[in-house]
Amino acid sequence: MMRFLEKVLPLFSWLCGAVLVAAISSVTGYLLFKGLRGVNLGLLFGTTDPVAALMLRQQVFDGLFPAMVGTLSLVLMSVGWAIPIGIAAGIYLAEYARGRTKMIFNLLFDILAGLPSVIIGLFGFSLTLFLNRHVSEALRPCLLISSIALAFLVLPYIIRTTQLAFESLPVQSRMTARALGASRLQNIVHVLLPQAFPGISSGVILAIGRCAEDTIVIMLTGVVASAGVPRSLLSPYEALPFYIYYISSQYGDQQELARGYSAAILLLIICLFLFSLAFLIKKGARYRTLYRP
Amino acid sequence: MEPPVKIRINSLSFCYNGRKVLRHTSVSFSTNSITAIVGPSGTGKSTFLMTLNRLWEELPNCSLQGTVEIRFNGVFSNIYEREFAVEKLRRQVGMVFQTPNPLPMSIFKNVAFPLELAGEKEKDFIRARVEEALQKVRLWDEVKDRLSESALSLSGGQQQRMCIARAMILQPEILLLDEPTSSLDHTGAEAIEQLLLQLKQNCTILVVSHYLDQVKRIADRVVELRDGQLCSR
Amino acid sequence: MIRGCERAVERLFFGAAFISALITISIFGFMFVFGLPLFSGGRFPEIMTRPWAPHLGVFGIYPMIAGTFAVSLLAMVFAFPLSMGCAVLISVTGQGRLSRLLRRTVEIMTGMPTVIYGFVGIFLLIPLVRGIFGSGSGMCVLSAALVLAVLVSPTMILLFCDSFERVPPSYGHAALAAGATKIQRFLHVTLPCAGQGIIIAFTLSLGRAIGDTLIALMLAGNGVQVPASLFDSVRTLTAHIALVFAADHDSLEFRAIFVCGMSLYLLTAILSLLARRAGSKRRQQ
Amino acid sequence: MQSIMNPLLGAVIFSLIFCTSAMAGDLDSFKGDKGELAIAGGTAHIPVMKEAARRIMTANPEIRISIAGGGSGAGVKQAGEGLVDIGNSGRKPSDEEIAKYGLHLFKWAIDGVAIIVNPGNKVRALSQEQVKDIFAGRISNWKKVGGVDKQINLYSRDEASSTREVFWKTALQEREIVANVNIIASQGAMKATVSQDPFGIGYISAGFIDESVAAVAFDGVMPSQQTVKEGKYAITRGLYSNTKGEPVGLTKKFLEYLFTVEGQQIVAEQGFIPVQ
């Protein structure tokens, strides 16, 4: 049996590598083949004048501009919620929590990290219902609700990268400043945080990427097919990944479908750029974060 | 005349990772002297040093009973008393580790760091004290032109001397050293020995060491850690 | 003064961790409270075992549970050997530049947006599956599982590689010194020692496959039935939530998706716990 | 239910009769207005809503109109819950829903539900019995209804769809739909799917039919604007917009706009039968 395995393993591994590379290149190749021609300024602004659209003087009806603005504001807001809470929680876990407390927090954050996005979306949706009924009629599925729900989704990423960045600092560098009379907080602020910074920032970038690509959470909490550039936190909005999903199921004609392909290329570029950046800063950041054993 | 006692340890027990490092041991150390602590490796000499500045509290799975009294301004106080501020203690009890541990900052910032932690803001004062400390460890001439370079660019011996300067900048009354020369070559080690002899003028020094000849050269007194007890040799 | 500040900041940090933990718990709380009307009167077993027929007043989620397992397990059947092969290629059989290149590709693949896999799946894979296998619409267990396998593989590969690297090199040196080839060293030393790591990778990837919504929603057909073949249209728990969440908020139909949510929550939580247990076992070794 | 909207309709008709210079004037009512309007629900309504919103927002950029799908069920419920201002439905909301939420209904178009197949499929006519048998799974091969020897791939809509409800009630006479049917979440998706599946059969709003799919005659009648209008085609329904309580402000103006000459023209352009 082992003999056979020894013989077959190299061939098998090469085969698997080939299959994987074939799969990924057919996905990207197909997208590029179908949509590259459509990637131009008209994709973003349609027939509207780009300058007028950027100044928000004119609305764009047949371009991706509103979706891009929607995705951008969504990302900024959700990461804005998640960063302070996530980093603080990560520091608490790495530097303060001990024993049973730490165990329970670790356990809960493992669970949070593993929750399917549709559950976070459903939670956001039922939260909206709850608030709409008991707090204010004005609260409807909107940018604000989506960003909060998305913040829940990426919170474990930021907590885990922060925690990991702190915990993997050598014991010695932790003790040095303490031996010199630094308080716990001084040690964190002056010594540990600067050293943990690359790890944390790669986590933040991963969180941005995750916010930019998520479709399900926003689908349940406020993204719509057509809304223009969002004017307020309480208004519905468009988003790039949802646009792609929407086109894939609702396209009316070939022209619209072609725009879907181009939008997919755009999203692909954005996400791959973010992930390469995160990997450049910290190798292996993503899988160790999400799946911290 | 016997110099006055600086550190008084009473029935101290210390447990680390389930292992009893100290068992109801009592010992005292006199002011402005060098005491060498020797003993087989793995008996917990380093962790013993940490009981004197409470640094063990940063390690997991440790427990301690007994008292450690240190004389500050002529009065003995138990450093494990509730109201004793641990940061203040550590500013009075300097510590140098086995391997040089510069922080990832400039040389100047490294040495000035404890002062800044203590809340010192006067720039000129800091500058003067950094120079003084570096002079004391005889590093000033070597680094005075490159104070803003990273401390990591120094050689091992230089790094260790810088670490001593850093530990000395608050002018502690006690200095703990954990095999300070073990990662250095012969010349580096000799420079540090010289330095210690000079520092003992106004500092109580405890040094963990492996090298018997080194111990003979510098120590006023040798204490052995064996079976959880500290006894003079 | 400084003491007080120190204490206050620690409280603040604790507060942040506490809020995050509270979110985790309250998500479950919401699922439970909203799903409550379906639990009263001992209807729980009924929900888990009956079919879904809202017009007849039957709100069982059994077909969706079966669908979830069919799609995710089949995806794992594809993904596990594929990932193992690629991981071996990266850490054992591949050489220098090529293995680095493959690793980089895999790392970047972890960042592919799910919706893009779904999009390409609809227009490239579905017609292909329909064409090759002749019958059916192409939207089926097989299509969803294939795409899902590509989706979860990169993470699984990296986790495998990680678990191989964790095996102390001295073990491998011992084998090599005894005259073993690189492949023998891998099969006889590395692989047995990486056991817990492989379990971790498998459980976490399975959790991801179960939790994925978009691929199943776009490619599995969403038919409510217990699949009898690879070419049957199925609906997963996740897709069911996405399809039904717009129903009347007081109806049992709407309540039923919270039962789905709760089942998913428990399922993924159990997988996370299993992975954690394997992790602590590995640390003990 | 017409009685609820009588005053409004009356006003609209009145203005239609006396307003001869219609086109430019229909958007005048939005002048100086600002605010947001959220619309959700039936996917058949989306093209009309989009076009109307586009014209209104071009004329007055201060107005924001967002349009989401979700299906008729979602439209009725979300409007009733106050989550959106206008909830669209491809069926008349039930008396129970109207009473519960205090809905006001506005039926601005009539639509047929057409059975569609891939243009490559030769089958162009089915009887009601055949349709029932196909969707019940008793006929599972195109050969039995005059096509090629291939399995029939069934496509149906999700539970929140009113197209499904109308189709199920009228065409299938509330018979069982077989379990292995594929579920599609919107009109557009249905068209897209059937246009790609040479052996598929599904049903969509007649307004959505174009050259990418082929309509099938139902009991001998082809679905078209003409046959729907004349009542010859059997599977028809109204397209409704619903509000919770009496519509006011922007909501009211938007609904009024749908009943103007320009609004009804949009309805016709998108392939539906205007009510006027």
Explain what this protein looks like in three dimensions:
The complex is a heterotetramer of chains A (about 290), B (about 230), C (about 280) and D (about 280). Chain A has helices at about 1-35, 40-45, 50-55, 65-95, 100-115, 115-135, 145-165, 170-180, 185-215, 215-220, 240-250, 255-280, 285-290. Chain A contains 13 helices and no strands. Chain A is globular. Chain A has one domain (about 55-290): MetI-like fold, CATH 1.10.3720. Chain B has a single domain, classed as Rossmann fold. Chain B has eight helices and ten strands. In chain B, the strands form two sheets. Chain B has a six-stranded mixed sheet. Chain B has a four-stranded antiparallel sheet with strand order 2-1-4-5. In chain B, β4 and β5 (about 75-80) form a beta hairpin. Chain B is globular, with a radius of gyration of 17 Å. In chain C, strands 1-2 form a two-stranded antiparallel ribbon. The radius of gyration of chain C is 23 Å and the shape is globular. Chains in contact: A-B, A-C, A-D, C-D. Chains A and B meet through α8 and α9 of A and α2 and α3 of B.
What's this, in brief?
Chain A is mainly alpha-helical and 293 residues long. Chain A has helices spanning 2-35, 41-45, 50-54, 65-96, 99-114, 117-134, 143-167, 171-179, 184-213, 216-221, 240-250, 254-281, 285-290. Chain A is 77% helix and 0% strand.
Strand-helix topology:
The complex is a heterotetramer of chains A (293), B (233), C (285) and D (276).
Chain A: H1 2-35, H2 41-45, H3 50-54, H4 65-96, H5 99-114, H6 117-134, H7 143-167, H8 171-179, H9 184-213, H10 216-221, H11 240-250, H12 254-281, H13 285-290
Chain B: E1 5-16, E2 19-30, E3 34-38, H1 45-50, E4 62-72, E5 75-78, H2 86-92, E6 93-96, H3 107-117, H4 123-136, H5 140-143, H6 156-168, E7 174-178, H7 186-199, E8 204-208, H8 212-218, E9 221-226, E10 229-232
Parallel strand pairs in B: 3-8, 3-9, 6-7, 7-8
Antiparallel strand pairs in B: 1-2, 1-4, 4-5, 9-10
Helix pairs in contact in B: 3-4, 3-6, 4-6
Chain C: H1 2-39, H2 44-49, E1 52-53, E2 58-59, H3 62-93, H4 96-109, H5 114-133, H6 141-165, H7 169-177, H8 182-193, H9 195-211, H10 214-219, H11 237-244, H12 252-284
Antiparallel strand pairs in C: 1-2
Q: Helix coverage percent of residues of chain D?
A: 25-40%
How many domains make up the 3D coordinates of chain D?
2
How would you state the average pLDDT of chain D, rounded?
A: 84
N→C terminal distance of chain C: 46 Å
Strand content of chain C: under 5%
The CATH superfamily of the largest domain in chain C is known as MetI-like
Q: What's the SSE pattern of chain C?
A: HHEEHHHHHHHHHH
The third-level CATH topology of the largest domain in chain C is: MetI-like fold
Order of strands, widest sheet of chain C: 1-2
Individual helix count of chain D: 11
Tally of distinct domains of chain C: 2
